[in-house]
Amino acid sequence: MKNKVTNLASVSMLIISGFLASSCSSDNNTDDKKEPPTERERKNHVAKVFEFTPSVGQLVNTLPKFENGDTELTMLKKAEQALTKKTGDGIISLGGFGGYITLGMNETIENKAGLRDFRVLGNTFSLQGTITSSTNAEGSSEPGIIMVAYDTNKNGKPDDNEWYEIAGSEYYKDATTKNYEITYFKPDAEKEQQTGFIKDYLYWEDNQGNSGYKSKNAFHFESYFPLWTSKTSITFKGTLLASNAVDVNNDGSFWSMISYDYGYADNAPNNSDQSTIDIDWAVDKQGNKVKLPGVDFIKIYSGINQEVGSIGEISTEVMGIQNLHLVKADIRTN
Ligand SMILES: [Ca+2]
Ligand SMILES: [Ca+2]
Ligand SMILES: [Ca+2]
Known about the structure:
The protein is α+β, with helices and mostly antiparallel strands. The strands form 6 sheets. A 6-stranded antiparallel β-sheet has the order 1-3-15-5-6-14. It has a 4-stranded antiparallel β-sheet with strand order 9-8-7-10, with no helix packed on it. The chain has a 3-stranded antiparallel β-sheet with strand order 13-4-19, with no helix packed on it. The chain is globular and about 55 Å long. A hairpin with a 3-residue loop joins strand 16 and strand 17. It has helices spanning 2-23, 39-43, 72-84, and strands at 46-53, 92-93, 100-110, 118-121, 144-149, 163-166, 177-185, 198-206, 211-216, 233-240, 245-247, 255-257, 276-277, 282-283, 294-302, 307-308, 312-313, 317-318, 320-323. It has 2 domains: 1-35; 36-323, no CATH class. Residues 122-124, 142, 266, 317 line the site of one calcium ion (CA). Keywords: Signal. This is PKD domain-containing protein.
């Protein structure tokens, strides 16, 4: 059985490498002549994906696309293909709270004193801090927690004792729950979608005594549970942010997903200074500030557990990482 699984995995790997080779054939000649970096390479500096473990959500089997036979490894390679491609855009979805991805950078992101050092590229399209009227309050933030690691022992991979959390604007607030833990349970069967919206679709419970259901919306009919895992329940841990989506008219007709001030992924547009991170915001498990010379690995996990009516769950999307020093962006931290 084990051999069979391995063989299946290698067949899928071959198919994927074949696809990579054919779709990027112009990139295979870099040894012969150096081609100038593409626009995508200039703005995104991810070189490798070490882990890809989304939780549950409407795009979990779509970004990247699950196909029959896919395994944890082939899904990881698909995520890596999306986030390291040389042209066009690539995007992955982490699903609801806890879903995570671990990325390796093309070079160490230096921690320059007094300056922001990188940004996580996401798909937040507007910035909304406070709601002043119900007509223009269209926030689209789906904040993810950012963890950073410097390769202290120079073994080329992130080790458990190398990780630190970026303490964003919500880190020290009472509304933030440290050491949160949630378990999602695979639905027995995909329910027939008759009304277009299934409220009690996927059961979850957390370590705070809460439980509930993720709903299934009228736009995404695929399973919201990762189809490549054989597990019937999946558990995620981390720092939980307070829910950020506001029911503006109090009748579910209009939701605004409010951006937090700073320090999160997929929380502010990619061209906004509010999406940039200073490595000096890193803290250890006790919340003490740490001084890192730079960052080689970045882990992002979805930071909120909230259902937003017909929009579905809050789920962080990731499109890459930008080393601000490689794009000559000097953004000061006050
Ligand atoms: Ca810095
Ligand atoms: Ca290491
Ligand atoms: Ca998003």
